[in-house]
């Protein structure tokens, strides 16, 4: 399957759109055919954190798609269900801080910038009908991070005016341009 993979060279120079192994789900996993995957700033950091000696890594944390295969122990979802991927791996209980074994999809596990993703059924939620694929595809990490920054940390309220700068220049703009021209 096609995937956006990082390997062999630190930074963006080590990323390639290429064929990557397609996996079958284990007993409590599902395979999702991606409809939309978002790119966020975390994906830039991953390019420097992924060790050159580690296996090739599919980057990306945000995404949504349609289940195409379910593991033998999955009973809450079926083939054809439209789902949003929750990239917060192994954080299954409501706690003030993440558990010790917490990770985010896209490092160390393969992420969402691929045709298909295999993930635990604990990390998917049904896509609500009112959400477009674009909205669903960035809701889990990028949109919730923005929400938390605005409403939890900055304590913005409905009467506040918020000014948002454009993408601007620098490394982030080069990354978006690189992804768009591929």
From TrEMBL:
Residue ranges of every copy of the Alcohol dehydrogenase-like N-terminal domain listed in the record: 27-124
Gene3D superfamilies: Medium-chain alcohol dehydrogenases, catalytic domain, NAD(P)-binding Rossmann-like Domain
Source organism of the structure: Halalkalibacter alkalisediminis
InterPro entries per the UniProt record, alphabetical: ADH-like_N, GroES-like_sf, Zinc_ADH-like
PANTHER family: DEHYDROGENASE, PUTATIVE (AFU_ORTHOLOGUE AFUA_2G13270)-RELATED (PTHR45033:SF3), PTHR45033
Pfam family, one: ADH_N
Record protein name field: Alcohol dehydrogenase catalytic domain-containing protein
């Amino acid at each position: 399957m096609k995937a956006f993979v990082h390997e062999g060279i630190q930074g963006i120079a080590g990323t390639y759109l290429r064929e990557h192994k397609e996996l079958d789900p284990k007993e409590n996993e599902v395979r999702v055919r991606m409809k939309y995957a978002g790119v966020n700033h975390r994906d830039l950091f991953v390019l420097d954190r992924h060790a050159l000696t580690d296996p090739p890594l599919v980057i990306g944390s945000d995404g949504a798609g349609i289940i195409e295969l379910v593991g033998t122990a999955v009973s809450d979802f079926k083939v054809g269900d439209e789902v949003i991927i929750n990239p917060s791996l192994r954080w299954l209980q409501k706690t003030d801080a993440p558990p010790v074994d917490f990770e985010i999809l896209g490092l160390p596990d393969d992420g969402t910038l691929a045709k298909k993703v295999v993930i635990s059924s604990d990390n998917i939620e049904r896509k609500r009908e009112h959400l477009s694929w674009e909205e669903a595809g960035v809701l889990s990490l990028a949109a919730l991070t923005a929400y938390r920054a605005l409403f939890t940390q900055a304590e913005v309220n409905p009467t506040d005016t918020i000014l948002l700068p454009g993408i601007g220049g620098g490394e982030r703009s080069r990354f978006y341009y690189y992804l768009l021209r591929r």
